[in-house]
Amino acid sequence: MKKIFRKICSITLVFCFLFISVFSYIPYTNASMFGQITGEGVRLRKEATIEADILDYLSKGDYVTVLDTNLVSGEGCTQGWYKVEYSKDTGYICGQYISLTNTIPVSYGRPWTSPKKAIMGGAEFISSGYVSAGQFTGYLKKFNVNPNSSYSVNNHQYMANIEAPYSEAYTTYQSYKKSELLNSPFNFTIPIFENMPETTKHPTRGVKTGGTSEVKDQEFEKKLDEQGFPESYKKYLRSLHEIHPNWTFVSLKTGLDFNATAITQRTVGSIQETSCPSCVDPERINTEGSWYIATLETVAYYLDPRNFLEESRIFMFENISYNEIQTESGVKSILEPTFMNGNDAVDNVPYSSIFMEAGKTFNVSPIYLAALARQESGSKISNTTNGAKFTYKGQTYEGFYNFFNIGANSNESNPALAGLVYASAGSIKNSDGIYVGGTGNTQSTPTNPPATPQVSTPGTAPEEIPKTLTVATHLSNMGLNKKGNFITNLALDTTVGTLKAKTTGSELTFKKANGSVMGDTEKITTGTTVTFASGETYSIVIYGDLTSDGIINSADLLKMRQYLLGQISLDGAYLESARLANNTTVNSADLLRLRQHLLGQKGISQA
């Protein structure tokens, strides 16, 4: 999970799990006035009245060209209406939903209608919004503690995942190692905080050990002193210097109190429970899916630069600007175990060459870009990288790509699809009302197949990317029913894999009631949720399974008794699972039906 890219979030006591600012602007050269939409579902009408036909629905953050800054009076809008142009439609929007500006946001080459456009646009986004703004390392993109950044500290951060720099650094290290480039003259910028503790501890890995107190190179020691590195840093840097004497270490004096920074970062970050269950705070504050607020101890561990001063992790401090030691062979080594090992299906060019071009053009390390795409997009092709058709918030899109999940705000109902909507900016609807960016790779065999097939694992056949199925088709394939916000008709002891095998399983995500993603062998119970490719999510109900253990027994009978006595409450899927007698309320008739089932007198229908 979680990624991610998010709008600027002022740091308050409210938990803002927002990932990246899209508010980088360039001045427009003509005298046009623009307007940013300030509400959701704002209507663009044909005339200046609420009785007029609706031409389109606009989302918060969308931009329109304001053709006349003089408000026009009309029914339904006391402030008056602005005449505007949007996606080749000319119409009127109520003035209270527009904020006027004489600038427009940088487009970053959107709409991203091919893998190349998405990678190039994403590289420009990262370069202009982060690298050139003082967040020029993987660490600083996550933990913005640079007092010289264009943005206030602990703000404007690329992702919420506090482990992201840790995993990205290892991928980069493996690439350089395989390319035999580890002895290149790398430069690392390492933050130093005020009032740092002696050590910080990971819940499972414990406290970092190693390093050396022995001074073997006086000249190097002098450089460390000049940089102001404390002894707790020096012992690890000495060990690295002994292995790689041409590496350079530069300190970044943040001036920030370490503990205060950790407390603040805890409110703007999260960790995936499946990655480290013991890292999740006991209060279990959910941020998205299986992602939760981490313990303060965990945040402090990942914030502490000393824990990563080792060969395989120090690349989180590497300057991610482009330099000539970053080769295409290094990029290929990162992409080999992924679907990006070969040519893309739209332009039929090697992914490795696209990353190299993006890096050189926008002054970003292509090694870093490949590592980031691998983390954000995964190893297998998916909706964010295949151009497939999808529907989000009632609007259908097709032919868009987003390899870095830019715009995938974590507060969206489906962040990945929200990122694709961001990628579609500037596109127009076709005659069917679909925002179309390109042909996409929605067929099992592309019209112009790549010279080297895309594979999820080296040596296997290309993945078949079927067209996205509707929810109704999925349910029909699986033999399930939709009942309001619930899905029913599921047999006891059904596993996730059993249902996926009946339909296009790659389009479905099953989660437990606590938000963690379920594996194929796990049993589905009441409260399990399933999310479809369209972004729609439903709770599964097994009638009689009030305790969500997938079994109907005396524990469920006890729970129904307690509910009827007013000792406990039931809601959502759990309340629905108690409706055994098809009444509008749960009462003694439902208790009787459950007793009859347990006595073998009359079974419970799951339909």
What is the topology?
Blueprint: E1 25-27, E2 33-37, E3 42-45, E4 54-58, E5 63-74, E6 77-86, E7 89-94, E8 98-101, E9 103-105, H1 115-129, H2 138-142, H3 164-178, E10 187-194, E11 201-202, E12 206-207, H4 218-227, H5 231-243, E13 248-257, H6 258-266, E14 271-272, E15 286-288, E16 291-292, H7 296-303, H8 328-335, H9 351-362, H10 366-377, H11 383-386, E17 390-392, E18 395-398, H12 415-423, E19 435-436, H13 471-478, E20 481-483, E21 486-488, H14 496-500, E22 509-511, E23 529-531, E24 537-540, H15 554-564, H16 572-576, H17 588-598
Parallel strand pairs: 10-13, 18-19, 21-24
Antiparallel strand pairs: 1-9, 2-5, 2-8, 3-4, 5-6, 6-7, 11-12, 14-16, 15-16, 17-18, 20-21, 22-23, 23-24
Helix pairs in contact: 1-9, 3-8, 3-10, 6-7, 8-9, 8-10, 9-10, 15-17
Q: What profile does the largest beta sheet have?
A: 5 strands, antiparallel
Output the number of helix runs: 17
Decide which structural class fits the backbone: alpha+beta
Shape: globular
Strand fraction band? 15-25%
Question: Terminal Cα separation, in Å?
Answer: 34 Å
Got a strand count?
Answer: 24
Q: Poorly predicted ranges (pLDDT <50, ≥5 residues)?
A: 1-31, 439-467
**In order across it, which strands form the biggest sheet?**
7-6-5-2-8
